[in-house]
Write a structure and sequence with these properties.
Order of helices and strands: HHHHHHHHEEHHHHHHHHHHHH
Strand order of the largest sheet: 1-2
CATH class: Mainly Alpha
CATH superfamily: MFS general substrate transporter like domains
Strand content: under 5%
CATH topology: Growth Hormone, Chain: A
Structural class: mainly alpha
Number of helices: 20
CATH architecture: Up-down Bundle
Length: 494
């Protein structure tokens, strides 16, 4: 390659540069996903009576836990902050929006950390929801602020990947980002409860693959518990939440490093541009709203993720009550789900890049999601079956995101991409905000006198989300055939 040719290349044309950029923003999202799910395994601790669990129980009801879990999406949904975040992204760019979002994440995390570590008197009436303890409301407020930052960060990272990987390994890159982020989810689900309790996990006989996995997670968890105890940090929910807040502080610094690379990419793109790129105009929003394929993707996202993320928030207790799993290791079984996505999402993304069939991948993933929840609803109580279902759900969770997110740039132009992702994330957040509240009330109503929850109705609801996702996936396939979006076509230009 001549010197002139090298000068005329964008920075993103360098494989090492674009993959470095991807790694940096993926680490930021990994820290975010850890914090998002760090409280999910703590439900048994949070809902234990005050003074129980060696004094670590916070005395929350299932209803309060559901309200808190849904708080992630409250500001995004009811105040439209995520949608405005998309407009900010398209108007002011990746660097400004990314820094803003990571700072919001860290600030919300600090408030949540403060709430779960302190006692508060009285209760607060929340309009349209109910009356909850002051601690729950303050923790929910912190989680809501964090949720605004995390979702805006998510759409920013999505636009980052499209910016650096269009014409290259777009679906693979998005798959790698999802996989890296899911490491945070897996760590939260597996480590959070033992870390909060300061409890070491006993090792199992290494006579099966599932036991080997559990032992690996136990080894890492026991190491974290040892470090925490060595440093003298107190037990309780605050220990796990504090670790998450520290990671988010690191996430702010990591994103600042990306900003340096992004500035260089913009300079290189400007040097080789043959004509100026058309900027964002508010009048362009009409085109977005009139695109049927976009709405199919948005509502598929709502239904599919409604069957995954809210389920994970209640899965630890499901393992304890329905499958008789020990409370100290119950979080390790849901942790198998993100591990499936870690390996499979990049794999399926690579398939999409090379061979296409994006809509088909979404149909298959939606079918697997439905199958898993139907099985969880049946009166089958084998913990081995629970592990198998979690692994299958991990496959589904690898299939749909690997195809869905790279499909959006095929439907919507780059100048509207931030707003498009924001609107999809907004619709997704409706589910993340309201479904945990719904499920919390359903679980409360299905709690027996002995405190054991019957999960049949809960899992039937989740299975219903899967059925709707299947229908929408087929409609998206038909719309692609009508409009020629190219969802079934490869992403890599040959």
């Amino acid at each position: 390659m001549s010197t002139t040719e090298k000068i005329q290349m964008k920075l993103s044309d360098s494989a090492s540069a674009r993959w470095t950029a991807l790694f940096i923003v993926s680490v930021t999202m990994m820290f975010g996903y850890f914090f998002t799910d760090v409280m999910s395994p703590l439900e048994p601790l949070l809902t234990a009576a005050k003074g129980a669990e060696n004094g670590l129980g916070l005395g929350w009801s299932s209803d309060e836990y559901g309200f808190f879990s849904g708080a992630y999406g409250y500001f995004n949904v009811f105040l439209l902050l995520l949608f405005f975040g998309g407009l900010i992204l398209d108007k002011f760019g990746i660097r400004f929006t990314g820094v803003l979002s990571t700072v919001l994440m860290f600030g919300g995390a600090l408030l949540k950390w403060y709430a779960v570590g302190h006692e508060f008197a009285g209760s607060v009436a929340v309009p349209f929801f109910g009356t909850y303890s002051t601690q729950v409301v303050i923790a929910a407020l912190g989680f809501a602020i964090y949720g605004v930052g995390c979702e805006i960060c998510g759409i920013t990272v999505s636009k980052v990947i499209v910016k650096w990987f269009t014409g290259h390994e777009l679906a693979l890159a998005m798959g790698v980002q999802v996989a890296t982020a899911r490491l945070g989810t897996a760590a939260a689900l597996g480590f959070s409860l033992p870390l909060a309790k300061g409890a070491y996990i006993p090792y199992l006989a290494c006579n099966s693959i599932s036991n080997l996995f559990i032992n690996l997670m136990a080894f890492i968890t026991n190491g974290l518990v040892w470090i925490k105890n060595l440093l003298g940090f107190p037990d309780g929910a605050q220990a796990s939440v504090g670790l998450g807040a520290a990671l988010l502080c690191a996430g702010v610094l990591v994103y600042l490093v990306y900003c340096v690379m992004d500035k260089k990419e913009d300079a290189s793109a400007a040097a080789v541009a043959t004509e100026p790129e058309e900027g964002f105009k508010f009048s362009d929003l009409g085109r977005l709203f009139k695109t049927t394929g976009f709405w199919y993707v948005a509502f598929l996202c709502l239904m599919f993720y409604a069957g995954v993320f809210p389920f994970l928030k209640f899965a630890t207790k499901l393992m304890i009550f329905k499958y008789g799993v020990d409370a100290n290791v119950a979080g390790l079984i849901p942790a198998m789900l993100p591990f499936g996505t870690i390996f499979l999402t990049p794999f399926f993304g690579s398939i999409y890049d090379k061979y296409g069939k994006g809509a088909t991948l979404m149909i298959i993933g939606s079918c697997l999601l439905t199958l898993v929840h139907v099985v969880f609803a049946l009166p089958l109580n084998s913990w081995v079956l629970a592990i198998v279902m979690m692994l299958i759900l991990g496959i589904a969770f690898g299939l749909v995101p690997s195809a869905m997110w790279p499909s959006v740039p095929k439907i919507i132009p780059m100048k509207l991409l931030g707003t498009a992702y924001a609107l999809i994330f907004y619709i997704q957040n409706i589910g993340l905000a309201l479904i945990p509240v719904w499920i919390g009330k359903v679980n409360q109503a299905n709690t027996g006198a002995n405190g054991v929850i019957d999960y049949t109705e809960t899992m039937t609801i989740f299975a219903g989300f899967g059925v709707i996702a299947i229908v929408i996936s087929f409609l998206l396939l038909l719309e692609d055939k009508r409009k020629g979006y190219g969802l079934q076509q490869p992403n890599v230009k040959k």
